[in-house]
Specification:
The chain is 24% helix and 17% strand. It has helices at residues 13-18, 32-41, 52-66, 88-96, 110-120, 148-156, 217-221, 249-256, 367-373, 392-400, 405-417; strands at residues 2-6, 23-29, 46-49, 73-76, 124-129, 137-140, 144-147, 160-161, 164-168, 179-187, 203-204, 212-213, 284-286, 292-294, 313-315, 322-324, 384-385, 388-389. The chain binds S-adenosylmethionine. S-adenosylmethionine (SAM) is lined by residues 7-10, 12-13, 28-31, 34, 51-52, 77, 79-80, 109, 401-403.
Length: 420
């Protein structure tokens, strides 16, 4: 059974196809370094490196001249940055101020993907993206806008059935909370409007006769050698890629005083004579425009003894004064041992980014741990090409943007066994 992987990146999601004997015969990816890593790990595939808008016709022509049957599945995982909810605040504000929002061109990449699907008519299609995809508008023609999901239904609805649904990959055995919008389409001559194709969860918060409990950080990574973001303690000599970036003394102090599951922004007094635990904690609320803003009055000094709290601060360049750091409540936050990890992004090496701290050690997660938490380590995959490991930045991008292959494997099981 053949697959085509559009927006393949370095081919992580494709590992889940391969595990079920589905061969990715064609992959398309914009960035050359990711495509090279893809080819290294999926040497059987023909790769189309470049912009899908320019390559879509070549992909269709190549497939039609090489294979007689339509592909079994097309996996289409377009970039999500343009759909992230981070940009929605600005878009909303501009819209309210009468400024026409600037639409992200990347969101229109669904159009060439749909063109390939219409031409090659795979039996199944798997779209994966962030949940915000469901609210995304794209430009259709010169001046009209259409919701991206409506676009998919309008273009493919005559011969495909299936609706989007948000899943948390933790519900499929991935040791990570990662909410994604999955739209699985099945080719049929009689499409139902309501059907949602999605495998039953295999895991849940609590176990039952139907599901096992979520795979937690404790069961996934607690057996690994400890590390700390201090010089001399940040690299494991025995496990490749089990290493973390250094933190300066100030950040180590904040992180060291942060309890499991909490943010350093709420750290309490550590003056041995005071130890007041009731200092106001950091928060956020919606302003008059409906935009979520972090509080600006969170104390940096103990409200009882006046000592500096181990909370993140910046230094005012003119006065030299310490100021409570402007940050959201998820910055400098530790994960919890008895939960799956928080969502891994390309920023997983930054302590200040959302929920990125190790549950108990003074550091972020190592690349080695990230490979486990994204389930890549369950599969045969190598970052070493011609005896040389590819740059760390490429590995982090590849992990942070990928689809956990275990989720794809579960989806493939569903579609292979599907009986109409
Ligand atoms: C979310 S990632 C895909 C992840 C992949 N499925 C995996 O599991 O590893 C999206 C990919 O689309 C690629 N991309 C962005 N614009 C593109 C374009 N115009 N043509 C082809 N690929 C593009 C990005 O470089 C990125 O690697």
């Amino acid at each position: 059974m053949n697959a085509i992987s559009l927006f393949s990146s370095s081919g992580i999601g494709d590992l889940g196809l391969k595990a079920k004997n589905i061969r990715t015969v064609i992959a398309c990816e914009l960035l050359a370094d990711r495509m090279r890593l893809f080819s290294h790990n999926h040497p059987e595939a023909t790769t189309f490196n470049g912009d899908i808008w320019k390559l879509k016709n070549h992909i269709v022509e190549y497939y039609k001249t090489t294979y007689n049957e339509p592909p079994f599945v097309i996996l289409a995982t377009p970039p999500c940055q343009g759909m992230s909810s981070n940009g929605m605040g600005t878009m909303l504000r501009n819209f309210r101020n009468g400024i026409r929002p600037k639409f992200d061109e990347r969101n229109r990449l669904i159009i060439p993907a749909v063109d390939v699907i219409k031409e090659l008519r795979p039996q199944w299609v798997i779209f994966e993206n962030v949940p915000n995809m469901i609210n995304t508008l794209i430009q259709d023609g010169d001046d009209s806008l259409i919701n991206i999901i409506d676009y998919i239904h309008r273009e493919l609805g005559d011969s495909y059935e299936g609706n989007p649904t948000v899943v948390d990959v933790a519900d499929y055995g991935v040791p990570q909370h990662r909410k994604r919008l999955i739209t699985i389409l099945r080719r049929t001559s009689n499409p139902s409007k309501q059907v949602v194709h999605i495998p039953h969860p295999t895991h849940g918060k609590d176990s039952s006769i139907f599901v096992e409990p979520w795979v937690t950080l404790r069961s996934a990574i607690s057996n690994l050698p400890p590390l700390s973001a201090e010089k001399g303690k940040n690299i494991c000599k025995t496990l490749p890629l089990h290493r973390v970036p250094l933190l300066d003394d100030k950040k180590l102090f904040w992180v060291h005083n942060t309890p499991e599951g909490q943010t350093a922004l709420n750290n309490q007094c550590i003056n041995p004579k005071c130890r007041y635990q009731g200092n106001r904690i950091h928060g956020a609320k919606h302003d008059v425009d409906g935009i979520n803003k972090a509080n600006t009055d969170t104390p940096l000094y103990c409200e009882k003894c006046g000592e500096l709290l181990p909370r993140p601060y910046t230094i005012d360049k003119t006065t030299g004064e310490k100021r409570f750091m402007k940050a959201f409540t998820s910055a400098y936050k530790r994960m919890s041992w008895d939960e799956p990890a928080s969502t891994l992004t390309q920023n997983f090496q930054y302590a200040c980014s959302d929920n990125k701290l190790h549950p108990s050690q003074d550091r972020v997660l190592s690349i080695y741990e990230a490979l486990i938490l994204q389930t890549i380590s369950k599969y045969d995959y190598s970052f070493v090409i011609d005896g040389k490991c590819v740059p760390e930045g490429l590995i982090r991008d590849t992990i942070g943007e990928s689809v956990p292959p275990l989720l794809i494997e579960r989806i493939v099981e569903y579609i292979i066994n599907y009986k109409p």
